[in-house]
Design brief:
There is one protein chain. The chain has 400 residues and is α/β, with parallel strands linked by helices. The chain is globular, with a radius of gyration of 21 Å. Strand 2 and strand 3 form a beta hairpin. It is 40% helix and 20% strand. It has an 8-stranded mixed β-sheet with strand order 5-4-3-2-1-6-8-7, with helices on both faces. A 6-stranded mixed β-sheet has the order 11-10-9-12-14-13, sandwiched between helices. The chain has 2 domains: 145 residues, 2-Layer Sandwich (Nucleotidyltransferase, domain 5); 189 residues, Nucleotidyltransferase, domain 5 (2-Layer Sandwich), CATH 3.30.420.
Amino acid sequence: MKVLVINSGSSSLKYQVLEIDSEKCLIKGLVERIGEDESDIEQTNGEKEYQVVAKIKDHEEALKEALKLITDSDFGCLKDLSEIDAVGHRVVHGGEKFFSSVLINEDVIKAIEENSDLAPLHNPPNLMGIKASQKVLPKVPQVAVFDTSFHHTMPEKAYMYGLPYELYQKHKIRRYGFHGTSHRYVSKKASQMLGENIKNLKIITAHLGNGASLAAIDKGKVVDTSMGFTPLEGLMMGTRSGDVDPGIIIFLLRNGYSIDEVDNLLNKKSGVLGLSEISNDMRDIRKGIENGDKKAKLAYDVYVYKLAKYIGSYVTILKGLDVLVFTAGVGENDHDVRKDVCDYLEIFGVKIDEEKNNGLNRKEGIISTEDSKVKVLVVKTDEELMIARDTKKIIEKRRI
């Protein structure tokens, strides 16, 4: 079975084609700056790379260009579009309506639209990708895989805020959590790497990219996660503030900041970028520290401190910890972050093998010592593979 996986953003469309029976990625590509005068198109097929600048007016046109490249005799991986058996879509917010991945129909589309108020930056472009796919590939079944669904096992005490209950009843204000597809993939992969049944493990997964979140997983089910009603809550991230006193927002609004200015400040100008005033990229922060930049050092220290603080709180609610997993851009590639976070966690019996840790960048494996009470792993996340797996499962059920 060949599955086309689509991750549609407001001005971008990422795609992969996977041969899901062998779980092999055949091709991957990206169309960026959709709707602008110049759009970038790039695709990789093994050692073959294709790049071009063109004018792409909308997501439907972007998908058509992607499908042309997928079936191109020189750069593609398929002879004909009829080889695509199904399309899997990343959808950020499923609200309280979707606890697992689903076959897309009109009712599902309507529900995703209704949840757009909860994720105005994500669900509308996700829908653009779905509608474009339905138009261009009308006979191919489509599946929605939700970022929020893995976190639906959280108990009420974890997802409710200390706000008037009527806000939950009227507006569904509660913790939802995000990055669920990544947390689900790496927790399962870690248990497989250890040769353990996930139902016997207490796991904390740390998805550390430009956006960052933690999940506390007990017996394969999420009991808490750091992102909340929006992806802004929780850890300090590349450009997002993470947890702040809500009174700060009220203060800024009363002192002349507009709602849009506060939104932009918290989501795009804060975090590592805001504190360092250099960059949201940890590689740039590292260079700044080496050059004696105090604000770069401050940004790094706050990032590590808040991460360790959250992990410590999750060990408490899990009543122990068997496995700690680092994943995504920073988690997979920054050995200093991993070591410095784990130094805080020595009280829980976490011990890092520095030689293994330093040698694992861009790879995956166990980085804890043999006598560490907690197994610490680096696992390369693969959200597209998880989406393709779900898509295959749903399509096969449909055929029965």
